[in-house]
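Thread amino acids onto this structure.
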């Protein structure tokens, strides 16, 4: 393999691995903050134990996520120097804001939350975890605005052989970036919800601390239902934006080869330029793609044959990743609805089969997130900045194949070790359950003294 292919593989491995941690951080931070807020408002120590238990799992995930994310930015200078030269004036701005504002806020208040038990007031301590959650979301915002600019570049001019920013607010208000952020945010919330439901289901099947885990299950079920519905709603608007700004990607997502109006939705057919979706006999929903793309059943969809072969994205991985992602999203909605129903009826423990399904479903939202990124990034090819800079022109010219192979091998070994540590720690503490000892958290009353 050449330097370009190896560099793409290295960035794919490191970013995909880092993104295992990001969604759970987004989801668990909100759930932990909500649980501690419930404790502050009600004084119910069960909510305090919930905040401590789920917060410990959040901290494990957060710490390893920070470590794996640092290496990504270095690769822009090492493997993608030509990209950094060409668009560094634009791409560097949101990354700098993310590091100096969001990450700084996140780092400061995570320390307050870890070491502030019994040292600051209950309200201030709860505020600190909310600030961590807000900062985590802000961090995702700036990263995804940067990626959104790469998907749909706005507010720039080409000058002196490079792209220069002329309208910062155009990038901040870029619909592609904002929709991508919204879609990813609620996808992360879905990961957090199914993680909490899955761990709670594991304990409920063993009749461990039923009151504690039924409450956790109920909170996560409601959070999961809201999140999964928002994933579908925002995803629909995001698909419209993709159809408008990246027609080649959209055509690959649906395996549309010929330009025509009233395009039907291909449900199961293998993507093939010969097979067309136009009737129910071929597992097709008539006019559905046109409706989804432009909210108009007679809208015209540009086919892949309208683009030169060298400007078409790989169809197979984009087509199947999109379908698997949507299929999993549908499952998450149905599972969340059932979880809310059995929680509301008080029959959680009377549904052991469903609880077992939820335990085995813990990895599925992670998989759906990875599939979404395959659609986004593979579907953008051959462009690293859509319509502006090709991926082949962005790779560093001074590195050798041997150097990239060495760093790729090193990253793979290191990340495999960190992945093992993460799974081991999460599994160990998730199985252990909550700690009843609150002596270091709650000050004793005068009567107790």
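Threaded sequence (449 positions):
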């Amino acid at each position: 393999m050449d330097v370009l292919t190896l560099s793409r593989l290295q960035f794919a491995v490191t970013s995909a691995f880092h993104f295992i941690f990001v969604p759970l951080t987004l989801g668990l931070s909100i759930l932990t903050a909500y649980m501690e807020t419930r404790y502050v408002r009600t004084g119910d120590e069960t909510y305090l134990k919930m905040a401590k238990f789920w917060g410990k799992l959040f901290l494990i995930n957060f710490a390893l996520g920070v470590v794996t994310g640092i290496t990504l930015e270095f690769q822009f200078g090492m493997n993608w120097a030509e990209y950094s030269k060409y668009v560094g004036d634009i791409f560097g701005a949101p990354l700098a804001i993310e590091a100096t504002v969001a990450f700084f806020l996140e780092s400061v208040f995570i320390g307050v939350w870890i070491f502030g038990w019994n040292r600051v007031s209950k309200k201030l301590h709860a505020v600190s975890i909310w600030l961590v959650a807000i900062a985590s979301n802000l961090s995702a915002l700036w990263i995804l605005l940067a990626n959104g600019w790469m998907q749909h570049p706005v507010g720039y001019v080409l000058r002196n052989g490079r792209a220069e920013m002329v309208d910062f607010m155009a990038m901040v208000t870029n619909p592609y970036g904002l929709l991508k952020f919204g879609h990813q945010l609620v996808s992360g919330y879905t990961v957090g919800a199914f993680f909490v439901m899955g761990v709670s289901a594991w304990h409920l099947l063993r009749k461990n601390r039923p009151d504690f885990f039924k409450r956790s299950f109920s909170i996560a079920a409601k959070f999961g239902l809201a999140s999964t519905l928002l994933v579908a709603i925002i995803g629909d608007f995001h698909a419209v934006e993709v159809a408008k700004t990246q027609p080649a990607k959209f055509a690959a997502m649906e395996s549309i080869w010929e330009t025509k109006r009233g395009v039907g939705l291909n449900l199961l057919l293998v993507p093939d330029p010969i097979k067309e979706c136009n009737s129910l006999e071929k597992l097709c929903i008539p006019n559905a793609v046109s409706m989804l793309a432009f909210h108009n059943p007679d809208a015209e969809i540009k086919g892949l044959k309208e683009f030169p072969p060298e400007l078409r994205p790989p169809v197979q991985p984009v087509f199947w990743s999109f379908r698997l992602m949507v299929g999993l999203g549908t499952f998450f909605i149905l599972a969340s609805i059932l979880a809310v129903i059995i929680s509301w009826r008080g029959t959680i423990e009377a549904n052991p089969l469903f609880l077992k399904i939820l335990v085995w479903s813990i990895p599925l939202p992670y998989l759906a997130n990875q599939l979404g990124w395959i659609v986004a990034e593979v579907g953008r090819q051959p462009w690293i900045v859509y319509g502006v800079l090709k991926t082949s022109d962005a790779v560093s010219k001074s590195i050798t194949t041997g150097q990239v192979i060495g760093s790729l091998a090193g990253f793979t070994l290191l990340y495999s070790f960190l992945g093992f540590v993460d799974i081991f720690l999460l599994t160990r503490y998730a199985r252990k359950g909550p700690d009843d000892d609150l002596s270091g958290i709650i000050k004793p009353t005068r009567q107790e003294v």
